[in-house]
Write a sequence for this structure.
């Protein structure tokens, strides 16, 4: 910023020139503030658009994962109920296991799905401070949605752990070697159903927050 030193000799002339300098400085600062404000609004709008795209993608993925897990729950529950009936009826183990292998052929797989939990757009908005230039209501919606993504990711990990990694692999190996018992299979199916349900439960809460964050016209309806 540049200004000239007043050259007036009278106090009145000096006052007039001083006032012009003050007005010039104030105008320059106001224009600079206006330009920065417009720039911040533009960055905030771009950040919001990126987050909307990311959240819509996550919402779509959540619906796909929930549908997949529900289908797996139905298959596992049907098999579990048949195995339980054989156990309660004291059907010989070899016969019960043969029935299970016949029923499970082509249908039974361990296929626990979780979303990818994208949050890159939010991370960028926080890093370049464009998130702070969003309107308070917008910021609240997006922060709530991405907070729910983080929470759901943690809960999904817990749900995956309920499947019992090493023990599950042992039972699956025993099934391949035809040495698993009906009780082994029942426990495996029970754990899997519980894991699917835990994951889908966390995704139901996440979906609710995502629908609130994404504009209603763009949200995927149940």
């Amino acid at each position: 910023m540049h200004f000239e030193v007043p050259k007036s000799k009278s106090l009145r002339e000096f006052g007039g020139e001083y006032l012009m300098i003050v007005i010039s400085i104030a105008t320059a600062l106001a224009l600079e503030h206006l330009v920065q404000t417009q720039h911040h609004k533009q960055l905030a709008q771009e950040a919001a658009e990126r987050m909307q795209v990311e959240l819509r993608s996550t919402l779509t993925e959540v619906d796909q994962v929930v549908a997949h897990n529900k289908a797996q729950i139905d298959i596992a529950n049907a098999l579990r109920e048949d195995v339980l009936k054989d156990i309660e009826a004291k059907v010989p183990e070899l016969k019960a296991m043969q029935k299970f292998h016949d029923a499970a052929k082509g249908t039974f797989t361990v296929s626990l799905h979780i979303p990818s939990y994208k949050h890159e757009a939010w991370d960028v908005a926080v890093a370049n401070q464009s998130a702070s230039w969003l309107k308070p209501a917008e910021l609240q919606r997006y922060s709530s949605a991405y907070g729910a993504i983080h929470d759901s990711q943690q809960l999904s990990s817990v749900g995956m752990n309920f499947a019992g990694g090493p023990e599950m692999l042992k039972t699956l190996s025993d099934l391949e070697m035809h040495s698993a018992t009906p009780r082994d299979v029942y426990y495996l199916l029970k754990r899997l159903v519980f894991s699917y349900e835990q994951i889908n439960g966390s995704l139901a809460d996440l979906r609710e927050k995502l629908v609130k964050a994404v504009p209603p016209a763009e949200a995927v309806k149940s």
Q: What stands out?
A: The first helix runs from residue 11 to 88.
